[in-house]
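pipeline/complex-builder :: batch 7 item 3
reading input block
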Amino acid sequence: MKKLSFHPCGNYRETYKQELNIFETDFGRFWMMIFLGLLFFVAPFVLSPYMLYILNTIGIAAIAAIGLNILIGYTGQISLGHGAFFGVGAYAAAILATRLGVGFYIAIPAAGIITALVGMIFGIPSGRLKGLYLTIATLAGQFIIEYVLIQWESLTKGTMGITLPSPEIFGWQITGNRAFFFLVFISLICMTWFAVNIIRSKYGRAFIAIRDNDRAAEGMGIPIFKYKLLSFGISSFYAGFAGALWAYYMVSITTEPFNLGLSVEYIAMVIIGGMGNIPGAIFGATFITLLNELLRFLTGVLMNVPAITSLGLNMAPLKEFVFGLAIVLFILIEPKGLAELWRIVRSSFRLWPFSY
Amino acid sequence: MEFFLQLLVNGVCIGLLYGISAMGFVMIFKSSSVLNFAHGELLALGAFFFLSLVTWAQLPVYMAFILTMIGCFILGFLIERFFLRPLIGEKLIFVIMLTVGLAAMFKGFILLVWGGNLHTYPEFLPQSMAMQFGSIYVAPAYSATLMISVVFLVLFGLFFKKSSQGIYMRSVADNQKAALSLGVHVRRVFALSWAIAALVACMSGIVLGIINGVNVHDLSSIGLKVFPVVILGGLDSIGGAIIGGIIIGLLETFTGGYLSPSLRDVVPYIVLVFILMVKPYGLFGLVEIERV
């Protein structure tokens, strides 16, 4: 029987393998197991459908945010087109499901792969451009994809939207919040596992090298164009996968939600969660989704306060204002995001009472 | 032919508007290399200040204009002082996202105060400013735009070439560390350039408001149209911004007139991608040679 390992009081690592460990101690693994156990065996059976709806939205957003974090946080390429890629995934799944009639277990990964290809096409400018020029190129990509989704009516039915059949496996229909909860969170865990391991591999190290100094990376023999494209591909795969899940969850989709605002929301998730940190993307997705729900609730309440309605004030824009304020405050006060706050809280518990 | 000429004139007029909207953007980029995503909202703020002063406070037009300018100058200064200064030397994405956050804040604020409806200014431009070439009519607002853009172009040209502050700004844009070591007050230059840029943005907002009416959503989408314009002209060239604006304006009106109206709004971005692939530093931009 192996002994549980505790936090050492210094850096006693001897091999690279120890450096690459995901969980520093067995305690981390233990708590993670408990958390996952609660998530899967308790949460779906005690929470109200509304709570499950919020959790599912968080899960889907987290998948897309993890993808964007691989691109922005690890490879250092800023993309303003993630919302559009999410839309491409949603439409790809919808078209595959309605036109070809394939099952969701094929349609969702296939949508991810189609989006990855589209993402790689829009990643081509990264071969010549970097920094803000690349950002502007992806901004253009966002508008072009939006236009294509609206105008290619023979395929996307334009502004009419597409209605998806409900996903079905072995004769069991996945409908309702609880069934989707399992689909979304199993996908989220697989995708997180994949992302964490990609970052530990040769590819992840190449991404980080490109982020830190692209010229040095090229000098050390990393073909950076290839890796940048790969990074665009992986990140778009995540966006497409999440978009496909979202399309199945929402049942009917239109082009409307996949605008620049959505792309900005994903970047906000990455920044607020913490760049270059996979759990950070999940924190960020949670934060932004909860903030959105809270603000929707608040504006709903404020609408009914007679003092405000009599003044003729419309409180709906408050949502936009607070969203902007959250981004600005996080950048100014804690640029490393919620992941850093979480680390500080954890280490202050660990070091208590003799913190230094 | 008639149709072609009318499109040509319209295109140049719209392009000039894009050009002067882009000027403030280029000012900021030139001195502090910040990509300002809140530019459209700055335009809108200026337009709405002016609207309030003219219709609500009933001030005479020239007073309202001067007060708006002063207000925007201070606003630009404050934005730099409180939001951008802590980020000097930070990663690009933080700066970009900060301006995106500011854009959301401003937009929320404007919607909260003025609402999302279309407002119009009272008529105050003299009808004598209208121009008529044969059958082609140029509205007074457009000739005013033409005059304002020429005046500002000359003013900024002189400012950057002759005045000491302008030369400081150029030196900071060129090499921040070298400028600092030669005794240029870099922070003051940043503050001043934001203040001037906000002033220019407000003025363009007013001009746009005269022509199209004042609406937050329209003005903030023009803030995004600025990107193809400045990329085409070169991110750090004010004259290039005007020419880029005219090219984009012509492209839009001709696409709208001859090909399809729905393609009109996307064509600038398609062109943008091609320019970035072929000539990333634009027609007049400074080429920084860096290959990876």
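note: The longest strand of chain B covers residues 131-133.
queue -> next item
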